[in-house]
TrEMBL record, chains A, B, C, D:
<comment type="similarity">
    <text>Belongs to the TMEM45 family.</text>
</comment>
<feature type="transmembrane region" description="Helical">
    <location>
        <begin position="185"/>
        <end position="205"/>
    </location>
</feature>
<feature type="transmembrane region" description="Helical">
    <location>
        <begin position="51"/>
        <end position="72"/>
    </location>
</feature>
<keyword id="KW-1133">Transmembrane helix</keyword>
<feature type="transmembrane region" description="Helical">
    <location>
        <begin position="125"/>
        <end position="143"/>
    </location>
</feature>
<protein>
    <recommendedName>
        <fullName>Transmembrane protein 45B</fullName>
    </recommendedName>
</protein>
<dbReference type="InterPro" id="IPR006904">
    <property type="entry name" value="DUF716"/>
</dbReference>
<feature type="transmembrane region" description="Helical">
    <location>
        <begin position="12"/>
        <end position="31"/>
    </location>
</feature>
<dbReference type="InterPro" id="IPR042127">
    <property type="entry name" value="TMEM45"/>
</dbReference>
<keyword id="KW-0812">Transmembrane</keyword>
<feature type="transmembrane region" description="Helical">
    <location>
        <begin position="155"/>
        <end position="173"/>
    </location>
</feature>
<dbReference type="GO" id="GO:0016020">
    <property type="term" value="C:membrane"/>
</dbReference>
<feature type="transmembrane region" description="Helical">
    <location>
        <begin position="92"/>
        <end position="113"/>
    </location>
</feature>
<dbReference type="Pfam" id="PF04819">
    <property type="entry name" value="DUF716"/>
</dbReference>
<feature type="transmembrane region" description="Helical">
    <location>
        <begin position="217"/>
        <end position="244"/>
    </location>
</feature>
<keyword id="KW-0472">Membrane</keyword>
Length: 280, 280, 280, 280
């Protein structure tokens, strides 16, 4: 990961995952609010989205682990080098560990959609743990670096742990669209901040940043807030578009193939439900 | 901000905002308790208050950003000075960033009053984030100052983060008058403490405080508690006056122009409701 | 306070207050569980207990403040000595500040029993703030002392802040007997630990403790756990006695003067309610 | 405890306790979901499990305390050695204190199963306190050790305090199978980590670990995450087996001796309940 690309790849993944979560949760929220009370099953389309998400997580984390292990200068699944009495490529092992937990969260997600036997909220707990482990490994990763280097990673931890905490809250406060969008936002923030870390540590134009200058640290702190603001705008924008599209779409076409229930009295009953939605 | 006035201006703003929040939330609470259960809409008068608050926040934060940028010795929207390889007036940029988030919270407030599509509680989340960002920037701002200087700013952070946390709680525990008044109180405390910081760092009578003396730090800690006590008294006092005035007012004049529902059986039914209000 | 007596007096107060809270909350719990659902008013006897508690707090904190100010070597309400450019007896001022907040919590307690206009939970918030202020002042009090001296005060803070946090929780989770007894327990722990602090810093037999020895610190940490165990036993014991006495008392005498409702079918209906009480 | 065995014994205990908790809570969960709403009593079999658990805890902690005190080089109930003015075997006293609190939690568990007079949740509060005291004593135990030694103990504290926090949450959020399994998982993690601590500090093959090497610390941090992953898999696996066994068992044999209610319409009504269980 010691180059710009090594930060841009996870950054892109997290950004896209944040976008995906925004879209998914807005669709789920639309479904919840347009359903009469009591009905709680998920329509096939939304179930399929969960399968896709879970499957992708399992696949991507498996590929990630393989790449980290069997890349040219990787550890090739060797952990300890007896000859030199030293650990082999601990950094790659750490990244593999992170991927492992995202993989587990994918498995739990699929399991909890497939069967009612998985306790409710287990998928969110697994995702929260994956984020926690990521942050936990980063935390002891930062030790003994240059001030600015440590600082940009510390800022990343704010996004990671805030995401972990809000996902943990979702275990107990389910189907709260605000919490779900906040989680999506934290993934986006994490993604865009990965890019920023790449820019600061491995600048593309070659001008090295002074890793000890206090002004650089002040700027970077402020810059993190700008990323937060941008991610908030991005999430709101995406959510609005998805919401408006879904509303218009399901108002026009009666027989929507995405499997959402669609009685002829829908648009009006739906309005009534939206009217009441702030009483929840 | 490096003078007394630079602390008195935000202090005044926060004090007045705390007062405004006290008045607003007591009126909202009056409305809630005097309504029969089930009815949840907000009367036009209270909606208008939200618009005024949101509009003012947007306006004030826009003006604030402009002033910070285009004041004589400001950065004039220049961020990096290539010639000297240094950041331009980072302090002004930091303040602009703080204003930006209060501006965002104003936009979200108006949006959430206008349309039901904004998730419930989004306005509180936005305000909580604005306070968090303020505290977050202050946190890394305090680094490397004289002990007393750092300490008075640290004390400010207690008010800021307590306000942020209680506003975050309001996302989940809505319409709890105690939480709302606590938030108002934290704004007042922050406002009055800004004055105190001004007095300590830029004393009006010119007698400089010894920034290293331990006794000064002990006094300042205690003084923060006095500000807390005063703000509690101020909030209770304001809330009582608003409550009593509203009760008397709506009991006398039948046809209140503020748009509150006013049936002839109001005063009695309202009493009954108050009687029950501790069961919530 | 720089002697054994100065620690024994607050210790005694806190111990007795913990006992009082145990008794009060068990009686309130008995009343709640023996009432049919829906009835929520408090009987005159329990209201009188609240008045006594509030009144005593106001009286004791007023006396405390007066004593701290006008004792022979006190500050006599003088805060700053212009001649020597120094603060006058800051320790006494700090103690006065602590008393002030307990006084405020007494006022709020009485107000919230007298009138329904005080928001529900305000008394608990006030008590929580009083404990927070006590801990907050202690926190900056400990700075720069000998290791063992600092450590015994830090341990005190565990009891103080745990009490503050659990009382804050009571604002939202009301009438939970476990939380109420935990609060009482934290007061007892605080009280008994005050005695221990006195014993460590001002031993009665004159054998000074070595304030730097590591073993002493280890012992003191463990000793704090013993105090916790003892306070738990004391609270359980007191609560059991009060509960058993009340049950027997109200079963024997039909017409209890303490004003609790007493229908002839009580004992049986009460049993039924206890049977159900774990469903809450 | 200064050898491998001294870490393997508590490790084994905690591992087995984690397994026991998994089994117990899955059985309780099965009972809850297979009962019609309203019925809340516990069947004799589950009550007996609680008695066994409580009794074992009391017995084991009593034996533990006796061993720590009266082992050959133990303190033999002497706390202070007046001749050498030093504390006697503080380590043994600390372990005794830890056992004491687990013993108390056993007593509270039995009491809360026997009588309805013990407040609901008291058993969980007692267990949470036992874990807190364990972590609290460890926290001040770690001071001034070699970096790696301190680090492996710090990692242990994550499991201990996470367990304490989640058990505390159970006081308020009762009968949540996910929280209960998480608690079981934290016990397992603690147990397996005790083994790891033994391996690191007292390696069986005799190759001493370098207690100052940074790479060892990085490995150990990552290794903790692997233990977490393994414990998660172990808990899920155990829970699935118990659940499947119970379901099959109670479907085949009509008249189950474990005392679970067993009407002829059970299997179908149970399915219906499972269908609804995600609405909770």
């Amino acid at each position: 990961m010691a180059n710009f690309g090594g930060h841009a790849i996870p950054g892109t993944f997290f950004l896209l995952y944040g976008l995906w979560l925004t879209v998914k949760h807005v669709l789920q929220h639309y479904w919840r609010t347009s359903q009469p009370k009591g009905r709680q099953g998920m329509p096939p389309f939304l179930r399929r989205m969960e399968y896709v998400e879970g499957g992708f997580k399992i696949f991507a984390s498996f590929v990630g682990m393989m790449v980290e292990q069997f890349v040219v200068d990787g550890p090739h699944a060797r952990l300890y080098d007896r000859e030199n009495s030293s650990w082999v490529k601990l950094m790659n092992w750490q990244h593999s560990t992170m991927y492992l937990f995202f993989g587990i969260s994918g498995i739990v997600l699929i399991a909890s959609v497939r069967t009612k036997r998985v306790p409710v909220g287990a998928d969110r707990l697994a995702l929260s743990l994956a984020l926690f482990v990521e942050g936990f490994l980063f935390l002891y990763h930062v030790h003994g670096r240059e001030p600015l280097d440590a600082h940009v990673h510390t800022l990343l931890l704010y996004a990671v742990f805030a995401g972990s905490a809000s996902t943990m809250l979702e275990v107990f406060i389910r189907n709260n669209i605000l919490l779900e969008l906040f989680k999506a936002d934290m993934f986006m923030l994490q993604g865009s901040w990965f890019y920023q870390v790449g820019v600061v540590l491995y600048p593309l134009n070659g001008d090295k940043w002074d890793l000890k200058q206090h002004d650089n640290m002040m700027f970077v702190t402020m810059c993190f807030c700008w990323h937060l603001a941008l991610s908030l705008i991005l999430v709101s924008f995406t959510a609005s578009i998805v919401w408006l599209t879904t509303t218009r779409f399901s108002a026009k076409g009666r027989d929507v193939e995405i499997g959402m229930r669609n009685t002829s009295s829908k648009t009006s009953s739906q309005k009534a439900l939206l009217e009441e939605s702030d009483e929840e």
